[in-house]
Write a structure and sequence with these properties.
Bound molecules: adenosine-5'-triphosphate
Radius of gyration: 29 Å
Mean pLDDT: 90
Low-confidence stretches: none
Largest sheet: 7 strands, parallel
Enzyme class: hydrolase
Family: Belongs to the DNA2/NAM7 helicase family.
Shape: globular
Subcellular location: Cytoplasm
Distance between the termini: 38 Å
Number of helices: 23
Structural class: alpha/beta
CATH architecture of the largest domain: 3-Layer(aba) Sandwich
Main location: cytoplasm
CATH topology of the largest domain: Rossmann fold
Strand content: 15-25%
Strand order of the largest sheet: 9-10-8-11-12-7-13
Protein name: DNA helicase
Length: about 650
């Protein structure tokens, strides 16, 4: 980890890494554009097809605006304001002029060009491609700059721990913690008492998110304003669900399309619908639509029509019933009427905008707790809000500059995470040091009184936890008595039925909480246009084990199937199409749990090449999702070339 004594050097260093990552992101999109069809990329939310473009005038700073419309409406997509996009007629080459998204509606997207736009953008049947999710990069750079106003945070980044002071636990602090264990209570007390930073290290299933939510409750009850963030929408929803259960009034900001449906009532968008100012603004928007229709009966005062005449002059000529430079008076009058309506539209537009802003501000001002992803914390909506406390969950999955986006908005900070689980995703090889999170920097540099670890886990049978505990947590983890020996047999209705294949029957038998199933007959395969792998024999085996588990009366919702490879995940999904079982990548399963987890490891080759399975943090996440039974499928001959996998397989077979 690189250390800094000068914050300017820190800023320059991270800005450089962000630029590398930005470049890699563009390469990623270009690669995907080459690999996938337009339709496939549209399904991923990174392209929009069959658009028609038209001139939308100029915008702030003289940029050229183009509005791209699809009458039938745009599909769900991940393109947002501030993103860099390219427009093409067929498949883009990457050499197209880049534009920035400045506005989006259900049917249109408006983009801004710095130069005169290429002529083709005014045509039909256009394709728009996301080229870089630039907004997050810009927010990171802004956050790094804002560090200048936060001397305390600077000192911590420099590991200048002169700020270390004895903390006094508030004797009046009451925590509604009948549910919590003493360690969780103690962590809440310490984090509450901290003047600046506190880190909660939460190994799998130890109640990191639970503890954080009770801490937020204590802050809320003491009248503080709190920003709660996490790197992904799923992780934000995860903590929001807990805050809701604790009846802490919270507002979720972000795109409702990416939120959990059950939590939508907490979103800013839904809360706005009930706000009187917003309703009034909606009435005005409707009026604007009517005015626009009325305008269609007259002649637009466009550059070509007005021939250099000002609005004022056109109105004057109209009332004086005069023609001018060959423009007949009837035409001048129609333009004057058009201008009058336009002026009314503008007045209404401003009024509606002001009411809408007022409504948003009043909701955000009243909300004690605001939740968003790290990136959205940098949005305009929160521009003028300073929070007493910023809490980041899953902080070890955020790059350092990404974590700074929410942190610079607060004056006291709590970060929860586990550096032994998945690190932040970094695309550029040159920016690989971004994969060390700010949590890790603080964990290494801060005095001990700023960090504590949760050690009792409430998820796994003790045998499921054993390997991870030994490898990654120095055997500090303890299984709570309520889960230590729990098995499938304790689940109501479960009965391990005889199964046609005795080997599979042995697997399903509830007595063994963790089993490794060798699958040597299958070979890993790869499609020509993909970097991902799949293994047909493992898919077959997974299906058979799932059938056996279901015939033992386990519910589909109790089973999770995970694999490190996207190709395997999508093939498993189609092989088990009607099973209603959650099938995800390991990365997609971080933070989740199921009674039974089946892992398909896929790799099977003569060379003993295990690719990115070698990232043991990914293995750790995979191994720690199951509560009562973990089934691992893999080719031991390939896997055992790696000492950690070898130890894992041996460890399971002696249990
Ligand atoms: N003190 C407690 N008593 C009983 N159950 C608890 C306690 N604390 C947490 N739990 C339960 O343990 C499970 C895991 O909790 P939580 O999701 O907060 O853990 P986590 O550390 O965030 O997990 P992950 O490894 O997925 O990040 C949940 O079902 C939660 O209700």
């Amino acid at each position: 980890m690189k250390r800094f004594t000068d914050i300017t050097k820190y800023q320059v260093y991270f800005e450089g890494l962000i630029q590398e990552e930005r470049k890699a992101e563009m390469d990623f999109h270009l690669n995907e554009i080459l690999l996938l069809t337009g339709r496939q990329r549209e399904q991923k939310g990174r392209a929009l097809l069959t658009l028609s473009g038209r001139d939308a005038g100029t915008g702030i700073g003289g940029v050229y605006l183009v509005k791209l419309v699809r009458g039938s409406g745009l599909p769900d997509n991940e393109i947002s304001n501030g993103d860099v996009v390219i427009v093409s007629k067929d498949k883009p080459t990457g050499k197209e002029e880049q534009a920035t998204v400045v506005g989006k509606t259900k049917r249109s997207i408006t983009i801004a060009y710095n130069k005169v736009p290429p002529y083709l953008v005014y045509g039909k049947n256009l394709r728009l491609d996301l080229f870089s999710n630039d907004i997050t990069f810009q927010r990171m750079i802004d956050a790094i700059k804002q560090l200048n106003q936060l001397p305390i945070l600077q000192e911590y980044i420099k590991a200048n721990i002169a700020f270390n002071q004895e903390k006094v636990i508030d004797p009046n602090l009451t925590i509604d913690g009948a549910f919590l264990n003493p360690k969780q209570m103690n962590i809440i007390q310490k984090a509450f008492a901290s003047n600046d930073i506190f880190l909660i290290h939460g190994p799998p299933g130890t109640g990191k998110t639970t503890t954080l939510s009770y801490l937020i409750k204590s802050f809320f009850e003491s009248g503080k304003k709190i920003l709660v963030t996490a790197p992904s929408n799923t992780a934000v929803d995860n903590i929001l669900e807990k805050l809701q259960a604790l009846k802490i009034p919270s507002t979720r900001i972000g795109n409702p399309v990416r939120m959990d449906e059950d939590l939508l009532n907490l979103s800013l968008d839904v809360q706005l619908q009930d706000h009187p100012d917003y309703q009034q603004a909606n009435g005005i928007w409707n009026k604007i639509q009517i005015l626009k229709k009325e305008q269609d009966d007259y002649i637009p005062a466009s550059g070509q029509n007005r021939r250099g005449l000002s609005d004022q002059k056109i109105v004057q000529l109209a009332s004086a019933k005069k023609s001018y430079r060959g423009i007949q008076n009837s035409k001048i009058r129609k333009m004057a009427r058009w201008i009058k309506i336009q002026q009314e539209i503008n007045r209404n537009y401003e009024e509606a905008q002001a009411l809408q802003t007022q409504a948003i501000e009043s909701i955000l001002e009243k909300s004690a707790v605001i939740c968003s992803t790290n990136s959205t914390a940098g949005s305009e909506l929160l521009k003028d809000i300073i929070f007493d406390i910023v809490c980041i969950d899953e902080a070890t999955q955020s790059t350092e500059p990404e974590a700074l986006i929410p942190l610079v908005k607060g004056r006291k900070w709590v970060l929860a995470g586990d550096h032994q689980q998945l690190p932040p995703t970094v695309k550029a090889r040159e920016a690989s040091s971004l994969s060390i999170s700010l949590f890790e920097r603080f964990q290494q540099e801060l005095p001990e009184d700023r960090i504590d670890i949760l050690t009792i886990q409430y998820r796994m049978h003790q045998e499921i936890m054993r390997f991870s505990n030994d490898r990654f947590y120095q055997n500090q983890l303890k299984a709570h008595p309520s889960v230590k020996h729990h098995t499938l047999l304790d689940l109501p209705g479960f009965e391990s039925f005889p199964y046609i294949n005795p080997k599979i029957e042995e697997v399903v038998k509830a007595t063994k909480p963790i089993v490794f199933i060798p699958c040597t007959e299958g070979l890993e395969e790869q499609l020509a246009d993909s970097y991902s792998f799949f293994n047909q024999a493992e898919i077959q085996l997974t299906k058979e084990i799932t059938d056996a588990l279901l015939s033992s009366r386990l519910f589909p919702a109790d089973i999770g199937i995970i694999s490190p490879y996207d190709q395997q995940v999508s093939r498993l999904k189609s092989a088990l199409r009607d099973y209603h079982i959650e099938i995800k990548s390991i990365d997609g399963f971080q933070g989740r749990e199921k009674e039974v987890i089946i892992i398909s490891l896929v790799r099977s080759n003569q060379e003993g090449n295990i690719g990115f399975l070698r990232d043991y943090r990914r293995l750790n996440v995979a191994l720690t999702r199951a509560k009562r039974k973990l089934v691992i499928i893999g080719n031991p001959k390939t896997l055992e070339s790696d000492p950690t996998y070898k130890a894992l397989i041996e460890n399971i077979s002696i249990q």
